[in-house]
Amino acid sequence: MKKEIILIMMSSLLLLSACTEKKSETNTLNSGIKKENLDLSVNPAEDFYQFACGGWIKNNPLTGEYARYGSFDQLAEQNREQLKTLIEGIAGQKNSDGTVSQKIGDLYLMGMDSNAIEKQGAAPIQPMLQNIQSIKSKNELTNCLVDLHLHNITPFFAVFGEGNPENSEMTIAWVWQSGLGIGDRDYYLEEKSEPIRKEYINLISGLLTLSGYSKMAGFENKEKNMAEKILKLETEMAKLFMNKNDLRDPYKTFNLKKVEELQNMLSVLNINQYLSGLGLSTDDALNISQPEYIKGLNKILKTNDLEVIKAYLSWNIIQNAAPYLSKDFVNADFNFYGKVLSGKEDNKPRWKRVIETVENALGEAVGQEYVKKYFPAEAKQRMLHLVENLQWALSERIKQNTWMADSTKAKAIDKLSSFIVKIGYPDKWRDYSALTISRDSYFANIMRAAEFESKYQLAKIGKPVDRSTWYMTPQTVNAYYNPSTNEICFPAGILQPPFFDMNADDAFNYGAIGVVIGHEMTHGFDDQGRNYNKAGNLENWWSEEDAKNFTERAQGLIEYFNRIEVFPGLFANGQFTLGENIADNGGLNVSFTAFQKAKKEGTIQDVMDGYTAEQRFFIAYAGVWANNIRDEEIQRRTKEDSHSLGKWRVNGTLPHITPFIEAFNVKEGNGMWLNPEARVQIW
Ligand SMILES: [Zn+2]
């Protein structure tokens, strides 16, 4: 529900054998291309995704626990096995009380103790539900929201700390819309999602009974009726939610307001009391990201019966807790969020779910051990070198582009050279000493961890932004660009094969990890990122003419992706995926430029395994996006994921890249062909 940094989604990788590789050494390198991942029965000029990934797709069928399984998920599975070894090792040793090892070990053991969890049933959440039940008037809602928000349960809205868009040095409070149980607002508003809403009512109704809340609150046997009222309340919220295209516009979500102004908008709550409860100042301005929603929320709180609001708040608690309670709860939760929404057949085994919990609660502590054991020191150096090559390539491309004035180019290059680059793991580690993990109940530990995390995040508000903070743990298989700190980050988790291959010729590495790096860099200059200056402040540093040229080019990508039918009758959302499509387009162009330089310098071999260096570059790129995906998940991601689907990150992106067209001799009439004038090139 929170504002998100821009991830690559499945992302990337790492080290690159450097340009300085000596010629004599290149002979020992392999091509990095695995024949078994290809489908040689397909003409690459017709369907490149099937050609480059068809073998992988066939050899890696979906298992019941996956809605989508791709190269990134495959690497994440390997990482998870490593984490399992590591965490089980810690849990099996003798740990003194209060140490990080004791916390990791005990949380894992509590989560794996399914007998104790079954025995406790709904008991762990009943005190929280009793608190809701005891509310007598709407005046008590403020304190109730303080308590829930401090435990990372965020009905109605969420508050978190984030840079001030006008002064990115300072962290301010952001208020963000939140509290739709199904997820995207379209589920509430679209006719065609009616069957999903029906299932949602069944889920709510079943869990209101199972949790004991309906009995406590005196509406036993009328759960279905109450569930319908909760859905109606959430639908009223959904109608007022800012839509996902507007959420990507940093100007639309920036509305600095004084506390009195927020109080006027949201008169049902006592804002001073609320902010004090969270430990925040009542003097500082806040960013109200969706002011129309907040105003409308006031009316919703006024007009809905207290009983319905209480049931909705209880539902938020139950829904948050369900994955960690006894199997009745877990199964009901999985049936809706896993099966109905994503088409999964089986829940993940318990150990994987518990490792995720440990990761959520103590991610950096686990990461500290992970990098000691699994991250080779030379990887960081190699990666820094690669990032430098890509930075050079993007700067060359900016200098040479034909649509930007020199003065704007100079600012773009200045921003590029100001990137903060984070690789592997943070220089300073987070302190977990204030978090208590004990052997009472799994859920009680999860709530303490949630409170610890909320307080950690809220404590940043009103203070200078700490630019050494990492927004991902080191073991994560992903990468990000954060516009408000102008930083790119590549955690250790993605810096390994099969995405970066130390033993492979660099054509492969530029096509895989190189494009990922270029992708993150390009985010600094996509339709969102271009609104921020080098310091991370919202500032229009573009001339009118340059901005117009950018927008026209971007419009070409929007319209192109809008025409892609991802599922019978369902089309990609070109506006929503624009930033990611610009980043894929730019990432390919930038990394290809770096690749060409390396080739000129003689560090890349010509033909290997029957493919030219250029062909290997694009085969490696496509391999990153190989995946199998269920029909339900295609539909869900088209609503909720700002990244294009894997298949279209290949077959939708490559027709715009002229070096690809040339490398595979694509001709007019071929499936991968796009007329030169229709090809979009921005960076
Ligand atoms: Zn991205």
The distinct bound ligands, ions and cofactors come out as:
zinc ion
Q: At the first level of CATH, what is the class of the largest domain?
A: Alpha Beta
Counting helices, strands and paired strands, the structural category is alpha+beta
Please give the domain count: 2
Mean pLDDT: 94
Query: Reading side by side through the largest sheet, how are the strands ordered?
Result: 1-8-9-7
The shape, in one word, is: globular
Give the oligomeric state of the chains in this entry, treating copies of one chain as homo and distinct chains as hetero: single chain
Low-confidence stretches: 9-26
Radius of gyration: 26 Å
For the biggest sheet, the summary is: 4 strands, mixed
The CATH topology of the largest domain corresponds to: Collagenase (Catalytic Domain)
Percent strand equals 5-15%
Spatial separation of the terminal alpha carbons = 31 Å
Number of helices: 28
CATH homologous group name of the largest domain: Collagenase (Catalytic Domain)
Roughly how much helix do the residues carry, as a percent range?
Answer: 40-55%
Proper CATH architecture of the largest domain: 3-Layer(aba) Sandwich
In total, how many beta strands?
A: 12
